[in-house]
């Protein structure tokens, strides 16, 4: 039985997800101490990241989640690294421990032992899947990718082993066919999906928790009867353009907690691991169907934005690589 406590603990871990992920291996943990009020209610639980405290200094060189195929002794073994675009196939994979054994014990997070995210390298295709696990630890999920090209598969899970934390491992997946990379859509505060309009308010910040609010409406009317999807009114995944670093966040508040309303607004707290451009994917459920709204956003520290505008006169059209001011 999945308990509220477990979900809450998971939510707390996710609040710190990026921080924890790039604290690993560096011995430094960044950014969770200033978690905004809209963050998941931790009920006095503290993430490992928050306990250790830590500074912001490591954030530039830090590793983000999802960029590694192997981390903390666990490896994502993707048995089907090549598929064909437009064909329904079954993805198969195994999570292995340091001895190469298939992991068969996972902690449930938001109702599932493992969340599988699939995204094209150009961030125009996105899937949030829930594969089935066979007793021997082999996971499988049917998938059909609409376009050829490079994809990334993310397995987001927590091994049941004592002391193991949440991990997101990433592996490359190629879809054969004629490939035409697409340009990342321009940053926009409004996204449309399946007749819904979703409006994004708030700014994603590097190394700092900030609030993001997504408001769902249809035909100009706010949607006030969102349905819980995997224990929340929304699931948000952010992928960094360029390397597809991964961030999974959940809303503040849970359905049925007495204060969280079923829309139109769903609030999140998220921390970007660095400046740069991200694609945000919001999954929400309404009238029995799950929809995904996608946004391109830029994460810039206020200082960076100032510095860039300050130097703009001296070096017109040239930023530091994060500003988008490419002059050619
Ligand atoms: Cu999931």
Describe the structure.
This protein is mostly beta strands. Helix content is 10%, strand content 38%. The strands form 4 sheets. Strands 3, 5, 6, 7, 10 and 11 form a 6-stranded mixed β-sheet that branches. The longest helix has 12 residues, at 4-15. The radius of gyration is 19 Å and the shape is globular. Copper (II) ion binds at residues 112, 115, 128, 130, 230.
In terms of structural class, how would the helical and strand content be classed? Answer: mainly beta
Total domain modules: 2
Q: Percent of residues in beta strands?
A: 35-45%
How many strands, what sense, and barrel or not for the largest sheet?
Answer: 6 strands, mixed
Q: Uncertain regions: pLDDT < 50 for 5+ in a row?
A: 1-62, 311-328
Shape: globular
Q: Termini, distance in Å?
A: 57 Å
The CATH superfamily of the largest domain is identified as Immunoglobulins
**Named CATH topology of the largest domain:** Immunoglobulin-like
Strand elements, count:
20
**Count of DSSP H/I helices:** 4
Radius of gyration: 19 Å
Write the H/E string, N to C: HHHEEEEEEEEEEEEEEEEEEEEH
Assigned CATH class of the largest domain: Mainly Beta
Query: What ions, cofactors and ligands are bound?
Result: copper (II) ion
CATH architecture of the largest domain: Sandwich
- Fraction of residues in helix: 10-25%
| Mean pLDDT, all residues | 80
Helices and strands, with pairings:
Elements: H1 4-15, H2 17-23, H3 48-52, E1 70-71, E2 74-78, E3 82-84, E4 88-96, E5 106-107, E6 114-120, E7 126-129, E8 132-133, E9 138-144, E10 149-159, E11 167-176, E12 190-193, E13 196-201, E14 209-218, E15 221-222, E16 235-240, E17 246-249, E18 265-271, E19 276-286, E20 289-299, H4 302-311
Parallel strand pairs: 3-11
Antiparallel strand pairs: 1-2, 2-4, 4-9, 5-10, 6-7, 6-10, 8-9, 10-11, 12-13, 13-14, 14-15, 14-18, 16-17, 16-19, 19-20
This protein binds copper (II) ion.
The site of copper (II) ion has 5 residues, from loops.
